[in-house]
Structure formats: structure tokens, C-alpha cells
Design goal:
27% helix; 7 helices; 27% strand; 9 strands; single chain; alpha+beta
């Protein structure tokens, strides 16, 4: 099946988590030296939940499959802020953090209603690719005392520049090579934001991209990392869903 060998590599990227590329940085309100971080309980009330994002199922159960702590992340030290973003972990020294996963809900295709015997090999491949063409977005929220949010945001944008030529990182023995970090146009929400694409080589010789965005809202930082395995397999373009970014931004206003 075409590109089938790339599935394992793409899945590894999801689990290992990493990606980035600087996009926009617009100066805005800062947290301030006397800003107080939100508590973990307050963040959990503010992060998107089931019913908040149209066309998406939101569940923090899926987030438990991601790296549980920064100490589990390995690789180039200057590029680790990018890895934290992909895993939904807080960049910088956060006082509190939480995360969840928003998964796109798709309507069944015509092929899904047919029996397997009625499908050609091409139909089966197309149906498989279509079933895997789902945006899965890891959303993280972290809050900081003083100017910590600005520092955390800067650590990400600095890492984008320093690691633009690629880097190796991952979780313990499961490291992956990322060949390029590319600037992208983000939502431009919040006080300042960056968006990026991370390119990696797949097992079949092709390359694939995953996408991320980081938005600072005062002394709280929202991170988004989106993977779409079907799009990786077929080369179809995708990005961080605006609906997810908008829904989370609305809860932080």
C-alpha cells in the first residue's frame, strides 16, 4: 500500500512529539514583574473541554499518552523548547500547566457504507487514507509569575531560529531526526504568537510536516501541535485548526 512504511514513522513523530518554525511576533501586553500565575485548578477550568470546539472531540485522556515530564525529553538542549510545545508541556519555568487533545470528527464516507468485497484495492487505500486524515491537536496551557510567560515565549522563538536547520530529539531512546523548521502564518491571536512547521523524513524516502503554534495571553501561554497521519501519507496540506485556536483564545479573554 502506497506510503504504508511511512505510517510508523509518522506515528513515532506523534508519540515522540517535536516540531517548530517562527512566524509572527507582535509586541503586546506583558505579564508584568508583579503578575501572578494562575493555579493548576484555574488552568484546568480555562483549557478547552468537550463541547467547546465545533467539529472536534476534546479529551484529556489522550494527553496521558504523551511525555509526562520534561525530564523524559532528550536531545539538543537549545531545541528542547520546541519539543516541549509538541508534547503539550510548558516552555519555560511555569508555575502551573495542563493539557488536552482535540480530535477532528469526520462524517463517514461513501466507501465506509460499502462491504469490503465491493471495494477495489484502490478504494481500500483511499478509504484508509481518508480515515486517517484527521487533525489531532495537542493543546497545552501554562501560567507564569512575573515576566515568566514572556521568557517562555522567547525561548520558543529563539529555538526556532537556532534549530531552523534541523535537530534530533525525542523521548528517552525514541529519538527522531527533524530536518527543517519553517516559518508559517499563524492566527495572530493574543499578545504575541509564533507558528511553525517541522519537517521530518519518512521511511519511504518522502518527507512530512507537522504544525505548531504558540500564543501568549498575558502571563498564560497556549501551545498547539497538530498531526494528521493521512495528510502525511498523501502529501496533503494541513495546519493547526483555526477553530481550536479560536476556541481556546476565547476562554482566555
Amino acid at each position: 500500500m502506497k506510503r504504508s512504511s511511512g505510517v510508523r514513522a509518522a506515528a513515532t513523530v506523534v508519540v515522540s512529539a517535536l516540531s517548530l518554525a517562527l512566524v509572527t511576533g507582535c509586541g503586546g501586553d506583558s505579564g508584568g514583574s508583579d503578575a501572578k500565575a494562575l493555579s493548576s485548578a484555574e488552568l484546568k477550568k480555562l483549557i478547552i473541554a468537550e463541547g467547546d470546539v465545533d467539529g472536534h472531540k476534546v479529551s484529556n485522556v489522550e494527553a496521558k499518552k504523551l511525555p509526562s515530564a520534561k525530564s523524559a525529553i532528550t536531545g539538543d538542549e537549545q531545541c528542547k523548547p520546541l519539543v516541549y510545545v509538541i508534547g503539550g508541556l510548558a516552555p519555560g519555568d511555569a508555575a502551573a500547566e495542563t493539557r488536552t487533545v482535540a480530535t477532528e470528527e469526520k462524517k463517514p464516507t461513501d466507501a465506509a457504507s460499502k462491504s469490503l468485497e465491493d471495494l477495489s484495492e484502490g478504494d481500500i487505500e483511499d478509504a484508509l487514507n481518508e480515515s486517517m486524515s484527521v487533525d489531532v491537536t495537542v493543546v497545552g496551557l501554562s501560567s507564569y509569575d512575573g515576566g515568566g510567560a514572556e521568557e517562555a515565549f522567547k525561548s520558543v522563538s529563539d529555538a526556532v531560529e537556532k534549530c531552523a536547520g534541523g535537530f534530533t530529539a525525542g523521548e528517552k531512546s525514541d529519538e527522531g531526526k527533524f530536518t527543517k523548521v519553517t516559518a508559517e502564518k499563524g492566527a495572530g491571536a493574543g499578545d504575541e504568537s509564533v507558528a511553525f512547521a517541522l519537517t521530518s523524513d519518512l521511511e519511504d524516502g518522502d518527507s512530512g510536516q507537522a504544525h505548531a503554534e504558540v500564543v501568549r495571553h498575558g502571563n498564560t501561554v497556549a501551545t498547539y501541535y497538530t498531526m494528521n497521519l493521512g495528510a502525511l501519507m498523501t502529501g496533503k496540506a494541513y495546519t493547526v485548526p483555526a477553530a481550536v485556536v479560536d476556541a481556546q483564545g476565547a476562554k482566555l479573554k
